[in-house]
């Protein structure tokens, strides 16, 4: 393993990664661009191929890929200490902001704050559609290389249907799609007529109270959400709204909107769920649990990334789980839209869909405009 100790000191890592954590609005594409500019173009700590390999390797891991990339780049620059410092600096600014906003939006806020939340929440389904459709073309073009476009489409539809209907079982279906593709790539063509029987996994109950249930939710978000980003939305919603009733559907929409308009990873949304379940301590605990796997993956396996990328079983698993995750992102738009309860919110959703899919505006601009529209409509006498 190459010695990385002399590329930068910890103070530099703290300041540079902290800056990205403060200005990283726009989700993974913005985070990747900022990390590349810092590590490849400005400081030349990594060469372009090294950075692209890191992006590819992090995309093979479950969980928030841009967070893992930030931790990996800090590891390359300053070893394990750099990974810890850089990862924390990247995560904490957005976490602080989103917990402060959670206290405002989930408490007893003034009417204009409720209106802003209702407006931004109405646009979340459109942002989910934009996120999913943006991931479809690269996956579709890669499908014939190892898999097939027919199976790719089936996995996509499976993920979409699961997210739209059976949210609590989504993780199992993502894993099942990955295992099915591993088997499909190993079984000779003539023998593929027999469908393999996939194991049925039992889902445990919440058990010892809200903290245990919250811990399990955060573990799923951090360690089982293949594709990161919006694929975690149906996972969290099923637990937070449908099963444990920590939040209403409208409050969950606000949480997703907050995760989009604050800097840093979208996974910060889990902190709002934790805040709703158990206050500030719950928010901090949920974030700590959700981000722990990302640190563990890098600290324990970063020097094995090349072997991970070359492992045909890992690639086959992602050939199945990947399109299912994209489908889950698309399918998450259904329960998000059904959570709306005012006619004007559907009008805002329609306009937001035009902005995201038609005019290709980013999520921050779209959600901010929707929040402003909500304030105007409610102050003008619209219901909330």
From TrEMBL:
<protein>
    <submittedName>
        <fullName>Chromate transporter</fullName>
    </submittedName>
</protein>
<feature type="transmembrane region" description="Helical">
    <location>
        <begin position="111"/>
        <end position="131"/>
    </location>
</feature>
<comment type="similarity">
    <text>Belongs to the chromate ion transporter (CHR) (TC 2.A.51) family.</text>
</comment>
<dbReference type="InterPro" id="IPR003370">
    <property type="entry name" value="Chromate_transpt"/>
</dbReference>
<feature type="transmembrane region" description="Helical">
    <location>
        <begin position="314"/>
        <end position="337"/>
    </location>
</feature>
<dbReference type="GO" id="GO:0015109">
    <property type="term" value="F:chromate transmembrane transporter activity"/>
</dbReference>
<feature type="transmembrane region" description="Helical">
    <location>
        <begin position="196"/>
        <end position="219"/>
    </location>
</feature>
<feature type="transmembrane region" description="Helical">
    <location>
        <begin position="364"/>
        <end position="382"/>
    </location>
</feature>
<dbReference type="InterPro" id="IPR014047">
    <property type="entry name" value="Chr_Tranpt_l_chain"/>
</dbReference>
<dbReference type="GO" id="GO:0005886">
    <property type="term" value="C:plasma membrane"/>
</dbReference>
<feature type="transmembrane region" description="Helical">
    <location>
        <begin position="284"/>
        <end position="302"/>
    </location>
</feature>
<dbReference type="Pfam" id="PF02417">
    <property type="entry name" value="Chromate_transp"/>
</dbReference>
<dbReference type="InterPro" id="IPR052518">
    <property type="entry name" value="CHR_Transporter"/>
</dbReference>
<keyword id="KW-1133">Transmembrane helix</keyword>
<keyword id="KW-0472">Membrane</keyword>
<keyword id="KW-0812">Transmembrane</keyword>
<feature type="transmembrane region" description="Helical">
    <location>
        <begin position="152"/>
        <end position="176"/>
    </location>
</feature>
<keyword id="KW-1003">Cell membrane</keyword>
<feature type="transmembrane region" description="Helical">
    <location>
        <begin position="81"/>
        <end position="105"/>
    </location>
</feature>
């Amino acid at each position: 393993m190459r010695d990385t100790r002399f590329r930068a000191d910890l103070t530099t890592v703290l300041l540079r990664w902290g800056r990205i954590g403060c200005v990283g609005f726009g989700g993974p594409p913005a985070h990747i661009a900022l990390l590349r500019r810092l590590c490849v173009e400005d400081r030349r700590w990594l060469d372009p191929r090294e950075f692209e390999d890191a992006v590819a390797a992090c995309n093979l891991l479950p969980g928030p890929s841009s967070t893992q990339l930030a931790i990996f780049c800090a590891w390359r620059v300053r070893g394990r200490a750099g990974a810890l410092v850089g990862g924390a600096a990247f995560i904490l600014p957005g976490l602080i902001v989103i917990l402060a906003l959670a206290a405002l939006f989930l408490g007893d806020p003034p009417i204009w704050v409720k209106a802003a939340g209702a407006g931004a929440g109405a646009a979340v389904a459109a942002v989910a559609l934009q996120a999913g459709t943006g991931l479809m073309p690269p996956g579709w073009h890669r499908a014939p290389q190892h898999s097939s476009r027919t199976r790719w489409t089936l996995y996509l539809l499976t993920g979409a249907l699961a997210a739209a209907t059976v949210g609590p079982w989504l993780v199992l279906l993502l894993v099942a799609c990955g295992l099915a593709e591993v088997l499909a790539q190993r079984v000779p063509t003539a023998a593929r007529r027999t469908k393999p029987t996939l194991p049925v996994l039992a889902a445990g109950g919440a058990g010892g109270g809200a903290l245990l249930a919250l811990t399990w939710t955060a573990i799923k978000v951090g360690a089982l959400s293949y594709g990161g980003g919006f694929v975690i939305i149906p996972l969290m919603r099923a637990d937070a709204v449908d099963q444990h009733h920590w939040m209403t559907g409208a409050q969950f929409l606000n949480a997703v909107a907050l995760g989009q308009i604050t800097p840093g990873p979208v996974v910060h949304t889990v902190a709002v769920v934790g805040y709703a379940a158990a206050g500030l301590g719950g928010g901090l605990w949920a974030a700590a649990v959700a981000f722990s796997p990302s640190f563990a993956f890098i600290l324990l396996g970063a020097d094995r990334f090349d072997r991970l990328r070359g492992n045909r079983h890992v690639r086959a698993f992602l050939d199945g789980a990947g399109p299912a995750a994209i489908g889950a992102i698309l399918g998450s738009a259904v329960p998000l839209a059904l959570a709306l309860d005012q006619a004007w919110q559907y009008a805002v959703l329609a306009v937001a869909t035009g902005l995201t899919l038609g005019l290709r505006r980013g999520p921050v601009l779209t959600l901010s405009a929707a929040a402003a529209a909500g304030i105007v409509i409610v102050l003008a006498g619209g219901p909330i």
